[in-house]
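Example (one chain per record):
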Amino acid sequence: MGASEGRQEALAELKEQLRTLRVRRRLSMTALPLRAGLGRTTVSQALNGTGMPSEATVVALASALKTDSEPLLRLRARALPPTARVATADDSVSGSDADADAVSVTDPQTRFENWYRRYLEQRYGQLSVIGLDLSRPERACWPLDAAYLSLELAVPVRGVGPVDSRGGIAAGPGGGGLEVRVERAEQALAGQRRTLVRGLAGSGKTTLLQWLAVSTARRSLPPELDHLAGCLPFVLPLRTLVRRGELPAPHEYLTAVGCPRDGAQPTGWVDQALIDGRALLLIDGLDEVPQAQRAKTRQWLRELLAAYPQAAYLVTTRPSAVPEGWLADGGFTELTVRPMSTRDVAVFVTRWHTAAASNATTDQERAHLTTLEETLKDTVRSQRDLARLTTTPLLCALVCALHRDRRGHLPHGRMALYEAALSMLMHRRDRERDIEAPEGLSLTEHQSVQLLQRLAYWLIRNGQTELDHDTARALVDDALPAMPHIAQQANAEGVLTHLLARSGLLRQPTAETIDFVHRTFQDYLGAKAAIEARDIPLLVRHAHDDQWEDVLRMAVAHARPQERASLLRRLITRGDRTPKHRTRLHLLATACLEHATELDPAVREDVQRRTAALLPPRSDEEALTLSAVGPVILDLLPGPEGLEDDEAEAVVSTAGRIGGDAALTVMKKFRASADAGVQYRLNADWSQFDTEDYAREVLAHVPGAHYVRVRSAEQLSVLRHLRTPTRVEFTGDFTSGEITSAIRPEQLQRLEVTRNSALENLGFLQAYTSLTDITFNQCRNVADLTPLAATPVTSLSLYKCEAARIDGLRDLTRLTSLALDLKLPHRTLEALPVGAELTSLWLGVLSCEHLHTLEGVTRWPNLTYLNLCGPLDGLSQISALPVLSCLMLQARAGVAMLAELPPAPQINELLLGRWEAEDDLAMVARALPHLKKLTIYCNNGPTQVDLTPLRGMADLAITIHRADEVLGTEHFPPGAVTRKPRPRT
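Predicted structure:
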């Protein structure tokens, strides 16, 4: 056996032993990562992948599996190439990168590239875990393999669909609803080569880039990211790059980020990697670029895309720093980091305490940390205020550190948490460990805060996130004359060195620059400085800028009552005078009320009166606006008592968009609602919550639980425990076996399958004896429909199922309702192979394009419902349908089609899904003289609807959605005209 085969055999044996141990310990692939404190992808790769697990990963797995790590580490050592066992300078490839028989590499470019990969792994292979042991900075790091937590990312998915049972445009085929699919980072990034990731401060965006850099460098990416295999990662933090003036060209990347061997890179090496599509640019922090320089940064990106279209790009930013679609013209997919779920927090807490225990020196200390871990998990889950604070890795780490530091006791409220964190980071740890003047300098906590405020406020005023060392020293120097006690101990350079070493708040990303460890601390201290400087007008002038949002909120908390009242009055007054920013400013003022512990009641009333136009929300649009404010808006959402049905639905929609534990408490308030709209939102909007918690605490209590949307294996696993859902929508590649295992055959009445390529044979549906309604949407392998003939199905919908052979419809003789949105092989309805007597027919855009005419519709004389999504000739045919009562024209079909319709007195309901400025309702009055119900959707921008042509139809009930102006309402009795959302007085 050769050396290469021996190494491969050792690696295979290592993985086999790990798999065997997992089975023996009866640990699932969910439980093992949690117990080991590792990412699920890392564990999967270690047990089943082709790459070499790191030493830290093997040790963590051995501990979780309760086995000795030494035999496993010896196997790992045997599997390593000789060049990886003895790391020489530049002539080898490390780890799994090594060619089986390569002893040395002579090509200079390959040698440098190999060195560069190892360099990235070393530089970014450790995470700084805040608060582990700040008196021993060397202990505050942890291997990335063990510390990385796979984030959840929200992927926007636009859907279209027919009108649903509640009279709205359904978020399915044919409508324009916006849905969100939540996936772990690996799944969300699968196949993506141009991605913009949005996330709140401290949400883990930079850690995600760090993990991608290391995994790509060591060629250990999970299978979902195979499209990036072999790439060379280049980490480009914009906060550092913008200080150089011009953003770097490819050959300057290594220089710009301080790589020590930048001068050794081969000529044209980065350029060629970009051209070949082997480069992965990880561009971090668009939000940290000053506003004035963002357009220039965007142009820099555009030039890169034009010059190197084959390269892969991932860019990060805070959510509101750049508008939606800012990079859409460059083909970027936008993903959003979701708040940490309850389960994520539990995993993080376990890993944090595992890291702390690894640095513990006694068994007693380790046992104490285990107790603290369990106590903290219970505390976070049970206290809503605390749960709301632990939605990002940063705040979660701070809570862990404070909990340990205070021996199991935590402060209450956001500001109290920050204050306690600052006290711990800056002063208490040194004091309680009897560490006095380590640099020959002693500062009180107050003195430290005063100095740090100066630095923070300078950064905020100048729109910067880091400052050069000379500027920082000058700011400290300016403060020293007023602080003689400090000036006697050290000069400005010494004081700055002390703050960097001991405060726990500052760091040096490079030798020349200084910044805060997190923007939150900068904003907290800067807000305090602004209030002390009485700079309220300055705060209000910048209130529209997303960079100042947290500064404003914290300033309200720091301010004295009179200052607080002045700040809020000025904020709402500016909103009154500035239409462009009015909504944002008024909502920000409302959000600030959370921190206004003492406030003039008249001011509070003024603020609340300004936001009465959005609270409670009455529509999806208003819900979207409110959810953009973030979790703080959850405390302002009313109900369910005293709310109208549309308000209750919009409140639930707002909370559903935000997600997380704090939003879960809002959803729970509405779980007993009998309103169909509220129930729909509760059952549809649960992807952004912990699956088991939401199923147990919300879905299980919804009356009847008639409808449930399933998008993940986790949701599928809890489906069987719900209270007999009769309508289930599966989105994704669920197999027939997975569907049948989750739903009892006797309970399912309506089944919707969306974006599924796994389903082919529909024979499994014959076991569902109560199934009457089936929808297939974008199911490319659903072809043979004949198995449905042996089911009780009476309603069938086919949307964009290109393989479906509609000749099978001939056998479905029980059908009464049919919806088609696909390319039809027949040009007329007369030739459509339908062997049933239909009472309902829906023709989508694709079907209308292929038919061109309604000729033949009279073959179904019992039609009571007809829905058209495109212009068709022969509309006059429907006047011959004797019992047709409901006509719907949506998508590309409009009111102009009624011009060729003779009077049809049998039709008493009309829905217009698209309203154009030139539309005239006189056509409606002429063609449908006995109309009793009219619904109009205005979805195309500013619109005006004139009802005057209908003034003679006194019994007509009219509902109008999203119109800017409605004329002619005086011709109708009170209550006859309903506008949605309801206008606010």
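Caption: The first strand starts at residue 126 and ends at 128.
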